[in-house]
Batch of 4 targets.
Target 1
Amino acid sequence: MYLTREEERIYDGEYGWAKQVCMKIMVKLGELYDASRLIPVESAHVSGVSYKTLGDAPTDFLEALADAGEKVAVEATLNPQSLDPQYLAERLPESLVKTQLKLCEIFQKMGFKISYTCTPYYIKTPTRGAHLAWAESSAVVYANSVLGAWTNREGGPSALAAAIIGKTPDCGIHKAENRKPKIMIEVREPLEREVDYGALGIFLGKVLEDKIPLITGLRNPTPENLKQLGAALASAGMVNMFHCGGTSAKIEREHLEKITVEPKNIQETIEELTTTSTSKPDLVFVGCPHCSPSEIREIAEKMGDRKVREDVEFWVCTSRYVKEKTKSHVQKIEASGAKVITDTCAVVTWTDKLGIKTIMTNSAKTAHYAPTLNKAEVQLASLKECLKTALKQ
Amino acid sequence: MGAQIVLRGRGIVEGKCTAEALVSTKPISFLGDVDPSNGKIIEKHHDLYGVCVKDKVLCFPHGHGSTVGSYVLYSLAKNGLAPKAIINRWADPVIVVGAVIANIPMMDQVDISQLRTGDLVEVDAYKGVIKVLKSRKRGGLSKCI
């Protein structure tokens, strides 16, 4: 692997242990994947911020980096943590809250942006064609497939190293030849609801192996539909991007293997992800991945003047940034008794410690993870059905 | 006594050491499988269940599971419980990053079926060479004290 003179100096430890170890992470991973050099990244997005998913193991290393005075070299954002300071901190055990806050402080000390969101692209949209080092898998697929930026699916430590060095190994889908579709997916009937897009993602995640798909047959999907598709695709499989619609015009299709997706595949996937049929879930949760401004507006409009039922919690999860941007809609949603929760989501907080045993959601990604990560029963349903369940009629 | 066994592989994290081999046929997820406070394998279905990785040349096919596993290797090293070296058949990013940040010599592309728990081995991860200095025919697993 070729290193510039400056990179070599860092590698040899001339700028201290912390930079050296970050450079080594990058070089060793680069060698593993046959990268010939490092390339600068426009931004880094680090996962592994929630104490619930991290546990105690990373604290030692993160603290050592922060204590060495290391700062991020590029725009660097953080994935959700494990609590919302306004709504959840006081309902969770004090020791957990304290440890989470300590982790947050370590990241802040290193200069990370206090984003706590899985949708950093709503705060700042990456430049088309820019290279990134992002770790949150749903954001990786969205960046590659919808925004036209280029990023591998980084792990927590490698995204952290990239944030500090400002570079990433030039391998995987940073190379144009590795971004071509290898399989064609024909969706037989256009999908209507966001939950259908999520289900398509789970279905494809299981059959694609590592083949990037070219998806045809989608009729005018919204960016939010594609966000659901990508988030589910990444949680069920290894693929980090898809092609569809406009981006696929120039692609040669003749030689591609082809798979057809029938409406029954979508319906069956939704049924498989649904583990309970209760009409009274403990929690109705939308906002996985975190809501966009237009989703917040849509929810506010669809709710009308209805109030949340007393026996159900209704969470709408988004980033602090989007919540601030959509204040008037947020006020309307919260006036109903719903909580617009920031910094976290149902999957990465301790729903079990909040007494939540059943979750209804419009997110296929959440439905995929909640049985294991939340020890909860799940109902996967459209936003319309979620609102119907959460609100008094 | 037969000819000395010499195995070759690819050096990933540089370093040299001589220590007892601890050999597993199963992948290891450092997050979940290993307790960072005592260095023991705590996954009940693992063939090294209850065994301590401290100061061993830890040989296993490859890593798997969460990237948080890399940090577990760092914590083990900080607590003085890390293996002396890691030998894999196939390197995966979780173990590579863990070995880098914990500064544990590491090699891959090694035929670990030639190694047995209890063998005294010399690992040279600069050159990518492992020598079996003293072979142990049948060894019970040495437990942590």
Target 2
Amino acid sequence: MAERCAVIGIGQTEHSANRDDVSLPGLLREAASRALDDARLSYADVDAVVIGKAPDMFEGIMMPEIFLADALGAAGKPMLRVHTAGSVGGSTAIVAASLIQAGVHERVLTVAFEKQSESNAMWALTVAVPFQQAVVAGAGGYFSPLIRAYMRRSDAPEDTGIRVALKDRLNALKNPYAHLKFPDIDFEQVANSPMLWDPIRYLETCPSSDGACAMVLAREDALTDTEHPPAWVRATAMRSEPTMFAGRDQVNPQAGKDCAAELYRKAGISNPRREIDCAEIYVPFSWFEPMWMENFGFSPEGEGWKMTYEGATALDGDLPVNMSGGVLSSNPIGASGMLRFAEAAMQVRGQAGEHQVDGARLALGHAYGGGSQFFASWIVSSERS
Amino acid sequence: MAAGRVDVAELHAPFTHQELILREALGLAADVEINPSGGALAANPMMAAGLIRIGEAADRIASGAADRALAHATSGPCLQQNLVCVLEGA
């Protein structure tokens, strides 16, 4: 039988457009040291380190895991680097959890990061790779037609995306680590912001951030006396599919539906909308909230926008989504998935501060990457089960 | 290695001096056959070169040429990351 795995330490950096006050190793160490402090452990107490980041071109540093080993206390220990595009922060956490669940290690430090100020992610995504569809003009250029397709299919009101952005930006005001904070944000400001990739407006878009996130995962018999109780990893699931194939539904990808189905089956969840207390999902452009609500089975197909419209996904709704302010408020790409997973764990540990959902005991963390083709997700619980 | 000798070792050494360092670090006896495949000096598809070492070691066991084989993979010009596995026949 698999070992139980718990999150016993969580740390993140202050995220901003340019963390030029720290080096890349310094940025990771800020998050890792905070996670270890939260777990009341030191680097020496960790058996292995699992790190993740998006493509190396995003900083222009090839195989950064080699020179980061020392800063993360990994010298003389197993160190593993994971790479699944934008979902990598989630899949990195899942690889780390699997090392605990498989009985290989007792305590694993997992860290994900991006220091976008070192390079230019939009340029890095626009490089023409032979025999592959060019992304062209970055992620927004790739995803905006999918949003148009969703609007046409679902007949969603045009201002759904504005409402998502406003909600996430208000949540970010409660998160001390968030990159973007607009204290007087309102509907009009989002609606009147420049159109970047129709229908995506400037304030409906994620920023380019420098930042890192870290977690300490432990086997049941290696817990520590922490201030906050552990978050138990109830289930994990990952799915992938190619970027392009005939008949592919990119708006509601099969890989995401399959990932959700496996996750809920493993966690013993039959009605996610009712049973899950809150969800932190990967929404880099506002409209992906309703799209992923449908893809992950929180609403019937074509009706995800109603959850936003009715306030169900607000911090005081029946399924709060992106309590932290989400990817729209902080986007250190490689870390963005792990921040979602970490926020879910923070919620069930009761350490989310002003953006805490009262009584949260079951939370979902979600990440996606590539051309909506890599999915990673986990469900964490305050109860050991 | 304390548990017994190996017949064959496939070492991921893209540069010759690395093979000497690895032989010593792994405590390989003088009669251990090193890189019968030709190693990374003969074919080096970069990220696959380590996995090929494991495949070559397994192939020696499958063919009956060795009972016990060691495979090694590395990353970095200074052998910063190292993976070692020992494979045995049934």
Target 3
Amino acid sequence: MLRKLFKFHGGVKPQTHKAESTTQPIARVPLPERLVIPLHQAVGGHPRPLVAPGDKVFKGQRIGGADGSLSSAVHASTSGIVRDVAPALMPHTSGLTTLSVIIEPDGEDRWGELDKVNYRTTPPDELRDFLRDAGVVGLGGAVFPSYAKLKPGKEGRLKTLVINGAECEPFITCDDLLMRERADDMLKGIVAMRHMLQAEEVLIGIEDNKPEAVAAVQAAIAASGQSGIQAVAIPTRYPAGGAKQLIRVLTGIEVPHGRRSTDFGVQCFNVGTAYSIYEALEFGRPLISRVVTVAGNVDQPRNYEVLIGTPMDHVVRLSGARPDTDRYIMGGPMMGVRLPAFDVPVVKATNCILVGSPALFPPPPPEMPCIRCGECAKACPADLAPFEMYWFSRSKNFGKAQEYHLFDCIECGCCSFVCPSHIPLVDYFRFSKSEIWARERDKSSSDAARDRFEFKNFRQEREKQEKAEKLAAKAAATREKVAADNQAGTASPAAEAPDTAKPAAPSAEDTKRALIAAAMEKARQQKAQVAPKNTEQLSAETQADIDAIEARRAASAATPPTPDA
Amino acid sequence: MLTALLVMTAVALVLGALLGYASLKFKVEGDPLVEKIDAILPQTQCGQCGFPGCRPYATAIASGEADINQCPPGGEEGIRKLADLLGREFKSLSEEHGVEKPKSVAVIDENTCIGCTLCIQACPVDAIVGAAKQLHTVVAGECTGCELCVAPCPVDCIAMEPITETVDTWKWRYPVIQIKQAA
């Protein structure tokens, strides 16, 4: 059945370089000497460590618990001993460290006890918690926790579930090989996701430069007998694998600025994610390995099933890195990031280790001034005007850059690819975005500080006022009482005295004396109230002692020390 | 001639009444300039400017009592923004009010703290929790790094630690611009 396909704006056609790494099947990687598993591998909160140095862990044991919203768990990739829980270099351009669990494998590769669920009978909330604790995240590169996306929309049903097998970026073939070799299992994962989302139809988008993958998936669909699932070959054009672009191509829906695809009844998942959901639901296996393409400056480009935490150079060695290798890039040549070292670990986001050399990726020609030719706007798949955003980013006029919808930029690199002046446009956009985020963080923290400061001042004022009011009320009450006592008791000389200044002084003195007496009386009463109650059951001897003491006390109370005259 | 005068007077009266009504109806509470200045200030509430908090300093700037270069935490960028807002000339940070330092947070040494509550009283944003004779601790997320708690501590157990960059706060660098050498 032929399906009407749509086009997205812009896009480019770089050389794909995919044939090199697809000649051989997915290979296994021998256990490395050490696994370094960063706890923070997905967007969202930092998982907290659940193991300590010296602990023995099983394969698939949870070592990082999801903490906070959008967090997802992390697991031991093999059995062994935890050597350390310490900051380690992470595969990120910054070259910064993050808290990681370092495991020394024992070579047995033994699974621990695994929980299994039946997705058809388990309530959706429990199923989502299960997937969160299984650490399933989007394997397309954005590593967004999948459980958060597996919620049907407001109507309770989803119209279209889009499965992303486009894999548009040059060199990367991990999804291609996964679809060729594991289409049946992947399809079971898709069926589970479809059940969770109550999706009417499922469209699997695959670029038409992967005919074997399309055939494999179509065969799997036919074998499964499922209806409403379709594998669609789409034209090869970078970045057809962008979520919004793929949705546009398959359904014709253009997700506007500030909206989500779920608002239009569409949700998108990567094929690798579908496979890991299958593994989690069918066997209870958490996400501890993934398919990684090793390509570029190596003798044998190939795909490997790599345990999360394996050092990258350990994997690259199998493919035979050439001697002039000077860098590893995580991801492809368009969107990938250059890594700070060779021994950084493979993480859930690592779809490709692109081995670079000066010959393969020569340094870019010098940046020339922008001539406002508009090529970048023609190539932009997000319908933006990169030359305008570049101008404002360069002059650090971030407000203006945002007005040109900087945050709709998907950093696909099409603009930099076509720019005749060789301007690294995406670098400017990344710089602007992180600068704006930093400013927003500063702004919100300074707003919070202002609120807290104002509240503290308000609180101090209020406390002062309350204290003053309480004191005034108390003083007034006592004064009234004393006045009443004076009037009721001995006729005070002050009350009868003529209205002159002279008798006023003794009156004040009397009041004061009365106040003191009242205070003393109150204190005495309070003391009596808190008298110890440990004298109820006593031996005769103790009782005699107490009686003697009480007698002495009564005697002394009867003759108080004479007050000052 | 007389009609013209009368018409003009009537128009003037009507417009005057309208303006008067509008000024009452749309009266702006407080000085909007103070708000704008306060929004630029970093809200550290450290008092290094010589005023008890950021808002009093903003009020003083608006009324012309204080200069715009008295806020060390705001730094050069803050002064530039104030200069832009007020249409004044940029001037470098006044030395008597301190120097620009990297943003830091207070950390209480738990082994030394005696629980005297003096730092709690000094904290302008209530970022220190604790009670008398109980260990105090700083809520790092709320600490503005004002250093006001350091001086009152009788046992010198509060240290200022600069905030280190993490992956979450890391920023992409400004792309290097290659400058061609003139021939």
Target 4
Amino acid sequence: MASEKELTLLKEFTPQIEHTNIKQTVWMIFLAAVIVLGFYALYVQITEGHIVTGMRDNVVWGIYIVNFIFFMGISYAGALISGTLHLFKAEWRKPIIRIAEFITIIALLIGPCYILLCIGRLDRLYYLVIFGRIQSPITWDVIAISTDIFGCLIFLYLALLRDIAAIRDFQEIRIPKWKRKIYTFLALGYTGTPEQKERLHKATDIMAAMVIAIAVIVYSVLAWIFSVTLQPGWHSTIFGPYFVIAAVFSGCGVMIVVMWLFRKIYHLEKYITIKHFVNVGVLMLILAALFGYFTFSDYLTKWYGSERNDELLINLLFDKYYWLFILSNYIGVLLPMIVVGIKKFRTINNITISAIIVILALWVNRYLIVVPTLESPYLPIQDSRPAWIFYNSTWIEWALTAAGVAFFALAFTIGSKLIPIINVSELAESPQEEEKILE
Amino acid sequence: MKSLTLNPFPLKEATDGQPKKSSRRDFLKKSLVAGAGVVATGGLIEAYLDTSAAESGEKVKVLTTTGEIVEVDKSQIKYPRISRKESHQGIPGKKFVMVIDLARCKNARACVEGCQKAHHLPKDQEFMKVYLLQDTENTAPYWFPKPCFHCDNPLCVSVCPVGATYKRSDGIVLIDNERCIGCKFCITGCPYSTRVFAWRHYEEFDEDTQPYSPEASSPGVEGTVSKCDFCPDLIRVGKLPYCVTSCPMGVIYFGDIDEDVVTNGAETYQFSKLIRERAGYRYLEILGTRPSVYYLPPVERQFPVDRGFDGLNEEVEKRYESTPYVQKQRRK
Amino acid sequence: MNQYNPGPMKKVITIRFFWLTSLLFLISPILSAQNEAETEENEPVDTYLSFIATYTSNDTVVLTAHLFIRRERIPVDLQNAPISFTASGDGQQLTIGEVFTDSTGKARCLIPTTSLPRDKEGMVTYTADFSGTDNYFSASEVFISKPAALDVSFYEEDSIKYIRVSGIQTGSEGDDAPIANETVLLFVPTLFAPMPVGEIYLEEDGVGSMEFPMTLIGDSVGTIMIIARIDENDLFGYVKGGSSCNWAIPKHFLKQDKPTRELWTPVAPLWMIITLLILLAGVWGHYVYAVVQLIKIKQSAKKESA
């Protein structure tokens, strides 16, 4: 049975699970509307062809791929944060671990959708399975992402199990019968016997380790899609680890922003404190340093040797993309270091603002990896059609990007209505653990 | 006057025993016809009427012997294009190679146009592209026709997730657009910007009424990738690719590297000798793709580079506006 | 024309004419088809015939006629048009037969030269005739030449290999004579077009020779066909003869230079498959373990409630 402490904690979250207030309803309708707009854009793209996007024969991949990398990155960060913190038994993780898990699974469901938007013949998608060639990095990606999705789902379920059981046992909560039935079914009859606890613990440990390993592989494979080609700017050995670091970095940013939002909306000031912001912020600082280091190494070597096509690319980055380059690789790196590094600036709001900048900077960073390279191929682009020379994203692409973000927010909102956004059972355990540590 | 009648032995007729006097209708039915819409490829391989087939109701215009246009039912025309499965087999014992003589190219664009017409390509898609290159500011500018290089280490084939693009024993790299899922990975994989994507459906695709074959790269399909194919459908019947035959300057040579011979239709050379004597090279050898297309450097040119701007339409002329050479001319 | 190098270029253009013709035919069907419709009611169009006779071995001659029209100056081949061939000489006329043009507008026939009518100099006058239709004017072309033959043989002297060509002009009554003081071109037939390998000057005795080019590539056992040709000769027109030897370099089927990276092949390299399987087995094994734990939790719950 659920412990008393669990039930008292659960009580605090009951209102969110029981009711949806008008503000939240309006919010969800708005998100749904954005998603509908995205579907309309998708309809236009399917009926009229990819000509409605800004992609053309030179820049064949645009912001869809950028979004793909971005969401996969966020997902990875969630997995890494929840997995590592679980394995290292960092006590402070407990209030934010659920947020990290949610980020992981939601972003992981959105990310691959963006790569589908780039595919010219969606009707032949199953060819990837029946005719798959093992040599192709796309096949690696298909295998790795599907493995990752399964792993994350199992990990999330393991993490939710005790809370689901707690809700099932919590008689005071007023939820429809069918919902309770679902909770009962999903709880698997978990009652917290020593044997069950032991098994759950073992499984969670294993999956935490797996999720970390898998996420590294998934993100490296994603980077290899670019670096196995001969394109200047992509053909880099550093891309695997670079992408992994960038992913966790952006994920930390999203983590902080989501923490801030739930803290404000659900009034979780008691649970999510400055400590959490600073701790995740410090993680972000370290990652900013690493990310800056990788970025510097990558561009330094390209610039120093100045191979013709590398030079063309760098000239393009410092000319047409100057401000974006400054934002992504200077401000995005230095701001979190300053804000978190200097104690005076270290407030919840400041850290959140720098996290927002980091998210933007990282998105732009991916854009600067994908697009300018394709705009400076080995053979100079000699074309009279402007669309073929430079990439200009269209409303279709932006509508679908907005739809992805909206889905992320909507799924988070709905998720927090189904299960407490703070891991109740883990939190309930913490004092005992504390005692153990003190002993 | 004495008149002898000799029975001519192996009488080589294109048709099988035409009756000398026949009505035009019969004449049409039995004669070799080439559909107006399919002439470009269908006319080369024998296209014939199959009166036994059920009528599809769809009419195709064909040009008859006597120069008349007659509409016949589409189902009555059979085309022996190679099937998708067969197209995976290379032409046995051959390894094709192309040599492009940069000294002769004056950007007449006949190769581009010939190829586009024959493959039913829209204006947006060019299998053959002509670049105006200048390696550095102090070196000579030159016109650079660029087909697919049919590399011996084709990265585009390596990265294809579904095997839609493949390399054959005769060295030709083809795309099967009924297998292609349109992920465009091959486009980013190719360092030579050779591949094109069908961003929408083009009317030109409908002009080709023959069944699809990877060897013909036609008709095109929206959402798939296509590129220069070295015209294996022509090679099979002993003809040279369209770009070779349409070039008025004889810039492009084509042949079999095992046979060690290349020809532009008029002149035929021993490939190894030609490459040795004219210092032939492959473009961007440093990338390790091992192309099947060789270039002869633009020495002792037959045309000044400016001749390449003659008679270009506005759209094409605009393409070269951003090149360092044109910019420099402008400043003068 | 070209201001730098007019001579050779002009030749290219002329020779390429045939290729151009067939190509333009291909690329202009719709254009010409439209014109066809417009001019159908109008008067017939002019037709053009180009006609040659080529003597080949075994005393035969190949007559080739190419029939085409011009639509806005672009040549368009006429197919399935009946071309009648005749040979005449010294008042005699021989009807050879009628052949229909093929899809490239060409009609060919191959006949023995032995009983062709000749004039006093031994010349044969060949005629190709297109009688015309309602829509097309008739056309006729004449080709006059003396039957001849070229014989190619091979010999070795002081361990140097030679090609020998002897030319014979055949008279009507067996009064054969050598083809003297003529240049013969040598070719190797290849997939698309014959490759020139050299030329031989025939001396007074009608025989000439040259060293065998040792760089030629033959078939898998080194067999190669050498063709000798006289083109556009005032007297003989076109003469062709050939024979094979096995002196060429055997074709080695250039090994596709063994790539160090063979990733384009249909099957992935073994190491890649093994690595992938190990990774997948490792990861999914752990997944299975975690799921088994969940199942056991469920089972233990059932046990307890029971």
